[in-house]
Design a protein that fits this description.
Immunoglobulin-like, globular, alpha+beta, 2 domains
Amino acid sequence: MKIQSRKLFPTAVIAVVLLVTVGACSSGNEQKAGAEGPDLDGYCSVIQEIQSASPPASADTEEEARAIMKEFAAEEMKPLAEEALDALEGADEQVLDAARVFYGTLISLADEGDYSLLDRPEHLEASGTVHAFDVERCDWNQVKITLDEYAYTGMPAELEAGVTSLDFDNIGSEVHEATLFAVDESATRTVKELLDLGPQSPVAAQFLELIGHLEIRPDGTPDDYGIQDFAPGRYAMICYLPVGSTPEKIDDPNFSPEGTDRHYSRGEIAEFTVR
């Protein structure tokens, strides 16, 4: 989502680099870490910072990307990951084991700068366990969305404001993406009409503010989710990928989407309101 992790670091897609962010995490629990159980308020606050953190710059080379990741992880991720683990002391042992793997990966990034660690099977499996715990104990909203050619099935027309986990299941044969926009309330056109003005249209840019992105592949992984703190307003979820975007094509550096219809033109676009 592909040099960097889909959940924790931004990805360049259609010349845009962004991150699905998370806002304040609320919990009615005020336990403190230790014998009485985990410090859930402290933990949820820390993972808010982890989910919303992003490296300060993009990279032109593999070597430069690793150097940026190493420095960023050392300064930002490692202390937050260690704090998250401390706050979880006293939690269920299964959750703790998964958290040690998941947050341990973030700590390892500070030593190696190797972002491929985020794609290890053990990290992805731990991500699923930690995410399930986060959704339940941090009191987030959750929306489960199925992706296929070419639709966001299960995406409601209205959502409650607040921190929301968008959980995706790609059952199609193509790669899909969820690119999130906040839509200016003064826009009189539909989002589809704005998109049809063209990607460089200043009119479209005037009404669409990019706020998040996630790429989801067929036969996905437990970390196919994005966290967003939604304020009341108007939003859209869009798939910009070209029709025919199989994993093989997406991974081919010579693949050119020019002249190809985009998924949204076939119906993979969802406008929704947050109340």
